[in-house]
Specification:
Shape: globular
Largest sheet: 5 strands, mixed
Number of strands: 5
Strand content: 15-25%
Distance between the termini: 33 Å
Order of helices and strands: HEEHEHEHEHH
Length: about 180
Amino acid sequence: MSLFPAGVSRMDDPYFMRFALAEARRALAAGEFPVGCILVHRGRVVVSGVRSGTRSQHPNEIDHAEMVALRRLNTLEESIPHEELVLYCTMEPCLMCFAALTLSRIGKVVYAYEDVMGGGTGCDLTSLPPLYGSLKPEIVGGVLRGESLALFRAFFSNEANAYWQGSLLADYTLAQQGC
């Protein structure tokens, strides 16, 4: 069963990912780690989020783009069934964000670039307590991966950006060929 309403299809994943990429470009322009995301309901962007708190010497590890978007979702006056929401994110959600998305019952997660260091979408939720095991959203990876990779390469290529420099993720990203 597809989570897309009539008239909207999986072919729209690149269309919506471009919105998340625009958010990531905004983060990068502000000197932040270039993660952007949006939540879509029935073909309409309802909230967005960008990564923040990565510019300081002591980075904030809570304000991930997905967490920002979930907080914004909870302030909406309209009631949207979370199972009908699709998250588009420029990087695979980490374990913290994936757990929050799962507990929030987000129906589908689409990401661009894999997080080889902290990606959480491959977790076997069935081996966890029952609260998590029955809720796993549909996962789609690699949508507009090259465009997202270009943003992460730009971030890690700039020596002024100290966040995760020299990490497995930075080395993996900088070793990627082309965009």
